[in-house]
Amino acid sequence: MEKAIVAAASLAVPPPAFESTLRALEASALRNDPHAAIALFGAVHLQASKMVGAEKVELLASALAWSGAQAARAIWIHDTQQRLAVVSRRICVSLGSAANAQPAVLRGALALALFYAGEVIKAEILAGTRKTRDCGSINALMRTAVAEGQHAEPVFLEVYGRRVGCTVESLHFRALLLARFASGVLNSRQIEILDAWMWMWMPRLKGSAAAPAGSALRVDLDSNVGLTRQIGSDPGNYRFLAAAPIEEAYAAIVRDLHSGRMVPADDWTSRFRIEEHVAVLDLIRASLGESARAPVARAERRSSQAQAEVYLGLSEIMARGFAPSPAAPSSMSGGQPLQLLGDNNLPAGPATASHASPRRMVNVVDVSDTGIGLDGAQSDCGNVAVGDLIAIRLEAPDPLILGKVVRSLPAATPGRVVIGVRVLSTTAHPMRLEQPHAPNPLDRHLDLLFVPGEDGSGRYDACLVSERTFDQSAALESHSGDAIYTLRFNRSRERGRGWVMAGFEVVGSRPASAAA
Amino acid sequence: MSSTLLYLLFVLAAGVAVWQVLRRLSNPADKPRVKRPDSHPRSDTAANLAPHWQAADAIDAPTPLTDKQLHARMRDRYIEARFPGVAASSADLEQTERMIKGARHYFEEEKYDNAHELLEMAIEQTPAEPALRLAQIEIAFLRRGARLYTRLATEFNRVHPRSPAWSEVTRLGRSIAPEEAIFGADVAEGTHGRYGPWPQMPNWIHASWDLTSDVLAADLHRSLARGAALASHASTPSA
Fold first, then answer.
1. pTM (2 decimals)?
2. Contact check, Cβ <8 Å, A483/B78
3. What residues have CB less than 8 Å from A191, skipping those under 6 apart?
4. Using CB atoms and an 8 Å cut-off, which of residues 70-129 of chain B contact chain A?
5. Model ipTM value
6. A404-to-A182, A234, A386, A464, A501 alpha-carbon distances in Å
């Protein structure tokens, strides 16, 4: 796949007129001729905005996996936004040091530079690349704007065919908020939904030099760090972003969704599935809630050099993760070929080799009481997405660790993926339930994973099942010990792509001997 | 299946195919049996040969949804995505008891925003139902959210000014937000008439005081834990 992308990229030639104008713009910026560059930038920006907008609509319209040509176009979008971001920063530096720079021109240049800083962040997610996040350059632009008194003056930008009113400060906060949420938690569609809402919130993205009442985020303009929670009163060149206006804007979006109105109604993102919008709402809700609470110390992370095998999805976890005698993980060093396993986890013979699936080995980066950080090859883990159910066995006698993927993004090393996992349970085990009233005899037995709660009350016990099983809401029976318990799923404790960790209530029991 | 039988089946299938081709070549009027739209009417001969094949009706273009219908559909989709397993549509929100139970489950799992929003949407659906507002008020009290409690209580009093539950609302309000005038002055209280698993709470969230289900859940948990321990012991190789 990667070779195909590289090959396709060399063939994906952007429109010649645009490419030559972009090169002329880059040359002007390199010659330290900001006024000539500004004159060109307007036309390039309009053209880029139109082309990139059209490409994104097509790339994100379908849920199908991209072809090599589509992936190459995503890379072209990233490269173009990156080039425009570099050029705009260069222009700002030149204007900043020029004696006769007009305030309005400087303001416009700073606005474009911050706009493209945000666009690059989104493009990294789209193209599946990852660069070290440099908030220092973003903060430096805002520092210049504040020093020149241009941070709060109105600016109008053409954004994908629409004229939007904003300020340099609001664009600064937009870039930092995108950076904050672009840590592998949101996918391409979700980050575009978030951005569409932030364009609506432009008037609310207003900062202050003094800490406001209530919860807020802050940024130290002299640092390389983005937005952080406002804690303490240590000195710094801060700009504060109050949470209250964002909370009001968020509540307005929820009210619109309650009425069945997509937000924004006329935006291309309104065509995305409602689940994508709900995922972004959940993230914003969690962030707002977090900023209102006292900070909680993160669980201590212990570095690890171990390798582990991972299983992805409920079926694979049950078929292979809980197989009777899992084979010891094989080392991936020295270019050894993957060992193919059959369904019973024994080495596949000739008859079963065609049905076996390769093992998925990863490096364990760190472990804490609540999560695990993994690093895997793109070929093995490239399709792992946020919300997936995953199981890891760190060492052979240790129990299988069940978790939910909460972060997935390209690693700094090309061809690798970083995965963050939140631990759901270390004590799950397979269980069989009976569906006595299932119309299809083949559905009478239901094999699932039982996830016991941490206390002995049974109140927090759950079953890991497919979404289909959960939705059926059928009465189920557990034959355990000398009794038959009737239970019914009544809540979703956790859920992800295709699976639900379902809470249940025990509605009755009878002696097993009565059924015999 | 023996190779001879397979061979015979192959020969038979090939023979049928050849026969079909020869039949069509010999009778051009015998058109293949495919449905045709009205723009290509079938010949009388074809119709007579296969009277059960009717010319396909023109496909009616779907009637565009009105804005109201579209919004209703989007609202249902939002409900399904937002409250999976609890409510799938606006119609589900009208099941008051089920919504209060769902909100209680969310509260017990500390998903307070879900609980509040579920009740909020149920109230939007059936604004005249006091039980939903009272459940929302009780959850706000249990969370010690004084500002939210006061807002919800004020709205409840506006919508249900003669509700007998108001005395309970003000009693709880005086303990959580004593400075609010709407809750009146402190009065001596009796405990008669208050029941439920927590006698000091009105139990508007309909928590069950029948612990049978909880006892059975503990039994099942113990039984499964015993079974898992036995299975683990059996799979551990003996020294």
1. 0.80
2. no
3. A121, A122, A125, A178, A181, A182
4. 70-78, 81-82, 84-86, 101-102, 105-106, 109, 113, 117, 120-121, 124
5. 0.82
6. 18, 36, 8, 12, 11
